[in-house]
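Bumping with the actual sequence this time:
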Amino acid sequence: MDNIYLLMLIAIVVLAVADIIVGVSNDAINFLNSAIGSKAISIRTIMIVASLGIFIGAVFSSGMMEVARKGIFVPAQFQFGEIMLIFMAVMITDILLLDFFNTLGMPTSTTVSIVFNLLGAAVVMSLIKISHSETETLADLGTYINTAKALEIISGILLSVVIAFSVGALVQWISRILFTFNYERRIKSFGILFGGVALTAITYFIFLKGLKGTPYYKDLKGILVGNEIYVILISFAFWVLFSFIFEKLTKKTVLLVVIAIGTFGLALAFSGNDLVNFIGVPMAAYHSYEAWVAGGMDTTMSMAVLDKKVPAEPVLLFIAGTIMVLTLWFSKKAKTVAETEISLSRQGETHEKFEPNRISRFIVKGTSRLSNSISAILPSSVGDKINKSFEKPNYTMTKSQSIEAPAFDMIRASVNLMVAGVLIAIATSMKLPLSTTYVTFMVAMGTSLADKAWGRESAVYRVAGVLNVIGGWFGTALGAFIAAGTVVFLISFNPRVIIPILLLLTVILLYRNYKAHNNKASKTNDEDSLSEAESSSVQGVIHESAKNISKVVKRTNRIYTNSVAGLAKQELPLLKKSKNQVVKLSDEIDDLRDNITYFIKNLDASSLEASGFYINILGHLKDMSQSLEYISKISYKHINNNHKNLKSSQIDDLREIDDKLEALFTDTEKAFKSGSFEEIGAILKDKKVVYDLVNKKIEKQIGRTRAEESSPKNTTLYFGLLIETKDLLDATMNLLEEYHSSFDGSVKPATISS
């Protein structure tokens, strides 16, 4: 007998290490987001506190390893060789699936991934066994799968979404009513009591209830069982006293302590709850291998041994905890995942990552009507009092400052940590693999809703984002089930050949994703990207916006030339590139227009003229981008639909126009790049030359259409290009005239004081 199963065990262990890395990259940020979003504590302090929580939670963990052993399938129904194939398939698919979501920056659930991987692999292996049996049918599938436990786990996971969102919203709503957004005054009066309640909940449910699934609980059981009320009261008294002393000595709010201990506790609960997702399978594989060796190396032996409870090896827990901590500190993908949740829960303005859809619009409209109905029922005095609690402080900030500000305040951060920690700890004590991702994410979304972070300006985007994330969760379940089942099916044909191929493929994919993410993360801003104006005068805006104009003209020139070249050569990739470049340019201009509100708010009464100038400039830039968008779109569509190419005479005419425009755009770019606004007058004189040229080409094509046989599609495309070129020229010249008429070299530019 060779060592194939020993090699498989080694491979599973190595895969487990990789699984911890990709898993923690996705999940760890869930307990960091509240502290990071509130910016109450330095990043370094947050990381240290979270690291301690993870390590202690990992070392104390052991209660849930049974899920990987017998929670999903009935081990007695499988032979050793079949079990090892299941575990190998699960580890390969789990790593690839989690890494895929990490690369996308989408939070998914390691719990759902591992559960559905086990379920998919076990179901397919069971079907293979049934197909080889003469007596068994599809109806016997239930003898292989622990359907009751699997349904319990799945329903617990799905139920956690609703519970986490509802409880988070309710607790946050009550907290905001009590403290309002101007909580600094009330926190001085009631902060000690709030801190006492929050810290009591965290310590009791996380530190005490969370220990229930560990071997250390038996030492505390005699003290805790039957004395829960006394433990809670003593804990509350201690934390109230601690909060009082802390505030008196440090002159700082106790909310800092709540956030720190909450982060520690949530990290502890995460590690204790989710460690099974990373090492449960390799530990089960190790115990299977031990039983196989002890049983005489019979590959057909039943794996009923997995039904027995086996304590987790402390050494393995220590190693796993160490790897998790190191991943927390060094993973770049964790930061990418963090951005999604923080952007969806941000109280102020942010760059919305998701586009609205029909469902998000329907939900927002429906909830708005419901809110209006409730408001109509409530007495006006009660409604006014509630609304007053949700009035936000009015700070004058630029959009960039708004984005850099804390995503939410310390009240919401404390509620997030307290509620999420409590729910996860309860699940851990019940030995249910509740998804930490689902809980922390949905709690954060619930508190955001209650805090009215999803206002009319952002609701459709935020709801769409939540729907996208939840859709990704369902995709995780379905993808894990199908992928694991497919892999175990492939492996079963020839494990000696297929397993090395799959392992090599896994390494290649992980490396490619790692390199792609690093390149994306380290990529600096495009040198031609646009920047927001912060000047407070017309002359200031002229000078400050000059670089933007130079960049837009440069990009316009490139896009137009590439569109003409793509049509001439029928190069679809070049036309597609141009189309994508226009979309990027248009989005950047839209971002500048979104900043107008902040720009105007920062102006004093004597500088309001600058806002009118700035608005006009952005309008002209938008007109330019719209013309380019049409040109690139119809060009791409024409070639993509495989229509007849333009005639050589038409191509020659377009190239002639492109040469004239290129000269005009180049001169314009140089003038704005160097700040030589005096040269704009000379450039404006060239408008008539180019304009007349385009009109001649239109007249020429009219003659061709009447005298020659020509394709209707070609004629439509050609006229469309010429007319939109005129519009592009008009928009460009309007922009130049705006600068030419407004520029005054004798006036020193003024800027907004910071």
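The tokens above came from a reply further down the thread. The chain has two domains: 4-373+397-512, 538-742.
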